[in-house]
Amino acid sequence: MSRALLETSTGIFRFQLRVPESPQRGHDLPDPWEGPEQCHAGFCLFSNPEAGGGLSLITTPRIAHLIATSKEIPESTGIEPEAFYEAEVPSKGSGLIANRTIRKGEVIMQRGPVLLIQSVPHIDLEPGRRLELYQAAVDRLPEPMRSRFLRQTGDTVYDKVEKNSFRVFLDGDRKHSIHLGLFPDVSKFNHDCRPNVHYRISDLTHTTVAVRDIPAGEELTISYIYGLKPRAERLEQLSEWGFMCTCPQCALSEPEAGASDNRIRQIKMLEDEIEELVAKGAPLLRPELGARLVELYREKRLDAYMAPALTRAALLYSMFGHEERAREYAREAVGALEREVGPRAGDLGPMRALARDPKSHWSWAVKVTSGDKKAAAAAAAAGRRRNGTLGARSGGERARLGKGKREKEKGVRG
């Protein structure tokens, strides 16, 4: 059985487990799994009171078998000492508050799901039958997990699923892979369009990570949506959660909101421009475009979405032979990828390699012409001559020693 993770930039990640073409039937699940029961149109209820503190599934026997035989069901964990506490937040209700300074990159919370529901019965099942099935799934949860689930926002179990679920993708891209996952502790994070915490879901684990330093007393927030959108689009999408966002970004005056939306458009246009120039090999491509992109992201406080911009900047500076700038952006990209995507991020290995040794990276100087390379070499040689302070003989000895060292290092690397 193999696993693969598909990353996105929105905070929604796909957990893919491939199972054999002829898996065991759902009723052959190992103890202490129970089910199938209350089946409808191929979807059944399965439950395990011990998995991660309690887990109920409404899914196909195939996917139930996938999960029951997986070793990826996590136990709930958090950072120590306890870094946050629950408290009332004005105009928001309950929320999470930093109990101490939380540093950028710290894992705040890791949780497994307590309820997974395949999307087809959630959409197509007759409302009365659906509510009955959902209630049965919650009833199978042991205490205190059942109480934690019921404390989530929403009048009925269906309402709680609608308002608190995250998309989880199981069994690759096969039919019926889309599920709704409920993580009650995570639902305590309130929304902000410029959050200080980012989340990712992989291997059935929901992980929240600080994307900047968070001082004690500040509320911990995540974004329920992808943040690189104009205010009107964000508000419309957030209305599906049944609330009007009043975060500082959405509370801007009309002129301020217009300027903010214009920045978002600039970011989109610059990203498209960079991609087009790279694809065409156009002479207008310059590494400064990558630096400008990073600057725009930072101006908009898009701390939860920095990885793509930093990766682009690192590659552009490497392509034009700027070693230190390439290394600098690559190091930052590594940190952002670890925070936003996790250890399986596709770009993580290449960015680590670029940060370690830009000149050995595939992108190094690919946009530098032979004339530019000769000019750069001449300038470097002139700089070495200007920096010589011990006379011609000493300078010559230094040059020979330096050359020998470089040749030795090259041999070791090879």
Proportion of residues in helical segments: 40-55%
Number of E strands: 16
What gyration radius follows from the Cα positions, in whole Å?
26 Å
What is the overall shape? globular
CATH architecture designation of the largest domain: Beta Complex
The CATH C-level class name of the largest domain: Mainly Beta
For the biggest β-sheet, the strand order reads 3-4-5-10-12-11
User: What is the mean predicted local confidence, pLDDT?
Assistant: 82
Strand content: 15-25%
The N- to C-terminal Cα distance equals 36 Å
Number of domains: 2
* Helix and strand element order: EEEEEHEEEEEHHHHEEEEEEHHHHHHHH
Q: Given the structure, what is the number of helices?
A: 13
Major sheet description:
6 strands, mixed
- Superfamily at the CATH H level of the largest domain? SET domain
Are there runs of 5+ residues with pLDDT below 50, and where?
A: 1-26, 373-414
**Which structural class do the helices and strands define?**
alpha+beta
User: What is the third-level CATH name, the topology of the largest domain?
Assistant: Beta-clip-like
Write the layout of secondary structure elements.
Layout: E1 3-6, E2 14-17, E3 34-40, E4 43-48, E5 55-59, H1 61-68, E6 77-78, E7 84-89, E8 93-98, E9 107-111, E10 115-118, H2 119-124, H3 127-139, H4 145-150, H5 157-164, E11 165-169, E12 178-182, E13 190-191, E14 197-202, E15 205-210, E16 219-222, H6 231-238, H7 254-280, H8 288-299, H9 306-319, H10 323-340, H11 348-356, H12 370-387, H13 391-413
Helix pairs in contact: 7-8, 8-9, 9-10, 10-11
